Amino acid sequence: MKLNSALLGAACAFAIAPAAFAERGTDGEVKLTFPQAVSIMNPYLSSGTKDIYAASMVIEPLAGFDDSGNLIPKLVSEIPTVENGGISEDLTSITWKLIPGLLWSDGSPVTSADVVFTGQYCMDPAGGCAQLSKFEGVASIEAVDETSIKVTFTGPKPNPYTAFVGATAPILQKAQFEACIGAAAPTCTDQNSMPVGTGAFKVTGFTVNDTVSMEANSNYRDPAKPAFATAVIKGGGDAEGSARAVMETGEFDYAWNTQIPPDSQAAMAAAGKGQFVVAFGTLVERLEMNMTNPSADLPEGERSTAMHPHPFLTDINVRTALSMAIDRDILREVGYGAGGKPTCNIVPAPAAYASDNTACLTQDIEGAKALLEASGWTDTDGDGIRDKDGAKLSILYQSTVNPIRQDFQALIKDWWSEIGVETELKAIDPGVFFGGDAGSPDTFQKFYADVEMYANNFDGTDPEAYLTQYKCDKAPSPENQWQGENMNRFCDPAYDAMVTELSSTRDPAKRAEMAKALNDMVTKDTRIVIPLVHRGTLSAHSNALGGVMINAWDTEMWNVADWFRVK
Amino acid sequence: MLTFTLRRLLLAIPTLLFISLIIFLLVDLAPGSPMSEIPLTVPPEVRQKMIAALGADQPVFVRYILWLRQFFWVEPAYLLDGWFGTDLAGDQQRILSWQSRSPVFTVIGQRIPQTLTVIGTAYLVGILIAVPIGIYSAYRQYSLFDQLGTFVAMIGFSVPTFFTGTLFIIIFAVWLGWFPTKYDTTLEVTDWASFIRQMQQMAMPVMVLGLANAAAISRYMRSSMLENMGQDYVRTARAKGMTERTVVLKHVLRNSMIPVVTVIALGIPSIFGGAIITENLFGVNGIGAALIGAIHASDLPMVQTLAFIFAVLIVGFNLIADILYGFLDPRIRYD
Amino acid sequence: MRDTQAAPLVQVEGLKMYFPVHTGILRRHTGNVKAVDDVSFAIHQGETLGLVGESGCGKSTVGRALLRLYEPTAGRVVIDGEDIATLSHEALRRKRPTMQMVFQDPQASLNPRMSLSAIIAEPLTEHTKLTAAQRQNRVYELMDQVGLNRRFANRFPHEFSGGQRQRIGIARALALNPKLIVCDEPIAALDVSIQAQVVNLLEDLQDTLGLTYLFISHDLSMVRHIADRVAVMYLGRIVELSPRDDLYARPLHPYAEALLSAVNEPDPDRAKTRKRILLKGDLPSPANPPVGCNFCTRCPKVFARCLTEKPALVQVEPGRQVACHLFETIHPATGSTGGSEAKEHLQHGVTQ
Fold first, then answer.
1. Is the Cβ of A441 closer than 8 Å to some Cβ of chain B?
2. Do C112 and B237 lie within an 8 Å CB cutoff?
3. B95 closest CA partner among B114, B126, B74, B81
């Protein structure tokens, strides 16, 4: 992503904002509904998207992303770059400059002290900050003057737009949160539910896991915005109910996360009261191949570890055949409808980082059979299952309990049986699967199965940290209490070397090239990961609500100040 | 009666302590972790720190003892402080929800009113519908009315509330547009118009739950009436020349109410427990919705505290039902 | 004490009580249980009519239909000059004080949630204009009459013994000064020692209050003790209606004969010589009675006519009516039927 173009994009976004001619607070109330209710308005204490989105209407970061993933300034006058001197030549520091005269909703001025405090707040070791990774590599944060903040990194940081960027790292008011630092953080109930912010709205009422009531921030930096006088977020229920409240009864203006079956989508859209919008971020539903042997015959501690290679998934021809047998478009159609796209990449977006890898999109059962045949996997005992050297193509395929995933499992099992691969399906409670309990055999880290399916994505627009997950040393094992994200136990020195190189490469074009290469290394080159569907977030908004621009790179309420009532 | 009540209350203490331990262990040992809600983008080190900040990394018995202390000492102290302006609790740690980081009892306090209004009204409506239906069905056994009542009760029994709820939403909200599908908890009843709005938003959850409650209670009422209707004393009353009204409403009904009152009393804890599905469906932020939300998020302190409060209520209302029995039926004496 | 010219207090004519039977998926009306099938009799003022028979023969149904606790299928029940069977509900209710009932199960017949005093006083509240104090006095008076201690007034039925409960039941029945009391097996649920007390109480009350009883029982010795005349029922029909002494001395109907042969004989000598008539077979179903005489399936003296024709209850001797083809009518149709020595004038011949 070129920063020039980013700025240009931001400028465009502002230019087309149609509410500019409106006056603040003239459009009444905007009503939002989330299927999961808002628990807390402090993103540093919650990683729940619902909480982050709700909070983003009230508290803001220094900079955010627009709907195409470009950086846009929020509380600063411009995005710091090497060119404008905001980033040091050696990439070890970045200096942000606040818009002069910026006010908190309580009327007090926003100063560099607030930003510095926010950094301390999240980086306090006792605070349990959920967004700590945003501050990774930060050596110090200091106030240069009243409005300038300098963030220094421990080394060169090609992507310094992490701390204070995006809805997950907003600025807290020092005066309000001063007593809430460290271990005291969770006990500050009032502060956590009604933070003072700079956003278009300010909280007037908060009921835990139910409703957030807001009114227009009278000190918002644009005196003409927001168009709405009040806003309400009602939480709870389910995706279907939220979608219905917007699309069929028209009680609400906006519903976030209305992922419902494709046929219901069509039926609700037919009511004509609203429309669905999809934000395609980086979430990819994928199959992960286990490169180690998960056999229950192995002693505990050796199972699914690098000590025992997998009996057949280590053969690239098998992995390729498994991928070829899948019709990704049918999966999309069945599971997500308009809310999904078939994909062959684990980095499907933003466009600059997405590889042009599309070969997997066509199903080729015959090709898969031929490939297995050619590589010596034949059905020697006539039971319909291919084998070779005593190893049978018999797969334990696990995923979480989820109706769409169970549909996917059944479909894929069918296709695989067509090519002579036997599949046993297993569905695990998501709380256990993702729970990370080292004592449970069913976590996705332990991976006591041959193939597992889940969805993963990366935060923001830069895939570096995400691609780092496939490094050798990220493999979960008994030694590290099964922590780590390299579930496949994939290990390729060339991959590791390129990841290291990526972390010191600054040129965006080069970074994109390398990211694509890394993506291809784990997907089309090795089939360690078999991507299935690029999933979007389906939201719905009423036809009476204008100004909505769906955004996958930041909060969907990123431009809530521009929303207006269509009259 | 007093000694009986006191003895039962004393017995309830070890029972409840035992229940609390079981609940704590069950909830704690159940699969799932508060971390499963955290997106995969959060690195493991950060997860570990978050768990430590919640206190979730402590051994289960340490947490249990802490929770007992908080439940039986700190929280009542806060309550007294709130009432009398004393400072018993000082700044001791209250039971905090892992999900919202706010005190569990504050959340419960926020939610009880909605649950009591909506679920309580539904229960009341259910009883008010069920008792006359039960009486008349029994009085005119096998009549058209009785057959119809049986049919409706069967539907109320067998059709789950998430189905009737969705059906009602489609009929009354989507097609007819009479009622809102989401309960607006910020609505304050100040005048006639807001009262009407409150009635409108309560209508569907109350209908759904009322139907389910009425189904059960009307069947109890009917069978209890039928059992008594054939008794000799009813014949005696008729032979005495009492009016049918007196016979049915005084002799039969009063005797038939004994088991029904017990059933009603034992159902009251479920009002406080809320209706998980219905509350969730209509967005009523009651206790049931809080419980299901907490379960989804593996918010153990919330789940443990709510489950224990339900246990207390159930034990309490069992006792109340027993005592009521003593008042209603002269044949039963506890001393 | 009895006005021989007066009409009887109770006059039952052609009383039928059928309970419909519904079968099949559609619950069609496919038949009737003929619990009482064409029963006629009369009871005079101050008299005790015993009604005996096996379990299930319809005795209790006659008693209940008599007071219209059941709606009779057909027939007339004239009590004290009014046809009970056709009275409106309100008129019937106002008529109820004249006719009362004492039930078999004293426990079940008392409302468990009402105190003794409330049970006895309830009809007073409904049918009289007594003040509360007057009612209480009347309750005490009734309790004295039936031999219950006044201290018990506020107790509940479950606190009493069986005999005491039956006294409560009697006191309750007496509260409104009835003329007729139907005693439906009043002693069957009681201990033998208590039975005599209750029967003596009923007799004493009859003497002092001039009551008329229909005494339903399967206990033939007790009926012999209390009744003036006795009606024997079999399968919903009266087979013999005779003065007590005549019946016990010389039963006419084969069924009555068999029934009485089963009575325990207190004298051991006579008991030895007594010949018991054992009936074979079971009672036919009242839903499907025989075409001819109801008793023909078990009658030791059965002959061809019995199988095809139902015998009518006719007077065969003065004061004695029998429904059996073995007996000829001696006073056909009307005429004084006479009775036992004590009660000569009964009524018009009762025929089918």
1. no
2. no
3. B74
Provide the shortest C-alpha distance from residue B128 to chain A (in Å): 29
Beta-strand pair C99-102/C180-184: parallel
DSSP code string of C194-225: HHHHHHHHHHHHHHHH--EEEEE-S-HHHHHH
Sequential DSSP letters for A388-409:
ETTEE-EEEEEEES-HHHHHHH
**Domain range list for chain B:** 19-105, 106-328
Alpha-carbon distance C101 to C174, whole Å? 9
**Could you give the dihedral angle defined by the CA atoms of residues A49, A51, A56 and A57, in that order, rounded to the nearest 10 degrees?**
130
One-letter amino acid at B253 equals L
Contact: chain C with chain A (3+ CB pairs below 8 Å):
no
Give the whole-angstrom CA distance, residue A382 versus residue A392: 12
Prediction pTM value: 0.74
Place of tokens 């479920």: B270
Chains in contact with chain C (at least 3 beta-carbon pairs closer than 8 A): B
* Nearest-by-Cβ selection for C113 from B236, B242, B330: B330
Query: Is the CB of A183 less than 8 angstroms away from the CB of B106?
Result: no
Q: Inter-chain contact B240–C112, Cβ cutoff 8 Å?
A: no
Cβ–Cβ < 8 Å for C198, C187: yes
Q: Which numeric CATH code is attached to B106-328?
A: 1.10.3720.10
Question: CB contact, 8 Å: A254 with chain B?
Answer: no
Beta bridge partners of A529: A288
Could you give the 3-state DSSP secondary structure of residue A170?
Answer: coil
Tell me: cis bond preceding A342? Omega within 30 of 0 counts. Answer: no
Residue type, B268: I
- A484–chain B Cβ distance below 8 A for any pair: yes
Q: What does DSSP assign to residue C147?
A: T
Beta bridge partners of A96: A149
Q: Is C202 helix (H, G, I), strand (E, B) or coil?
A: helix
Chains B and A touch (3+ CB pairs under 8 A): yes
Other C-beta atoms closer than 10 Å to the C-beta of A134 total: 24
Q: What are phi and psi of A531, to 5 degrees?
A: -65, 145
Question: CB count, 10 Å around CB of C280?
Answer: 8
Task: Quote the ipTM score.
Answer: 0.79
Q: Are B306 and B287 in contact (CB under 8 A)?
A: yes
Instruction: Quote the tokens at residue B76.
Output: 């009542």
Distance CA B99, CA A210 (A): 13
pLDDT tens, chain A, 567 aa long = 444 544 444 444 444 444 445 688 889 999 999 988 888 999 998 878 889 999 999 999 999 999 888 899 999 999 999 889 899 988 899 999 999 999 999 999 999 999 999 999 999 887 778 888 888 889 999 999 999 999 999 988 888 888 999 998 999 999 999 998 888 887 888 899 999 999 999 999 998 888 999 999 999 999 988 999 999 999 878 888 899 999 998 899 999 988 888 888 888 888 889 999 998 989 999 999 999 999 989 888 889 998 999 999 999 999 999 999 999 999 999 989 888 999 999 999 888 899 998 889 999 999 999 999 999 999 888 888 999 988 899 999 999 988 899 999 999 999 999 999 999 999 998 878 887 777 788 889 899 999 999 998 887 788 888 898 899 988 988 888 888 889 999 999 999 999 999 888 878 889 899 999 999 999 999 999 999 999 998 899 999 999 999 998 889 999 999 999 998
Among C66, C92, C109, C117, pick the best mutation site for testing chain B contact (most B Cβ within 10 A): C109
- To probe the interface with A, which of B78, B100, B200 has the most A CB atoms within 10 Å? B100
* DSSP per-residue letters across B127-188: HHHHHHHHHHHHHTTTSHHHHHHHHHHHHHHHS-HHHHHHHHIIIIIIIS--S-SS--TT--
The secondary element (H helix, E strand) that includes residue C100 is strand C99-102
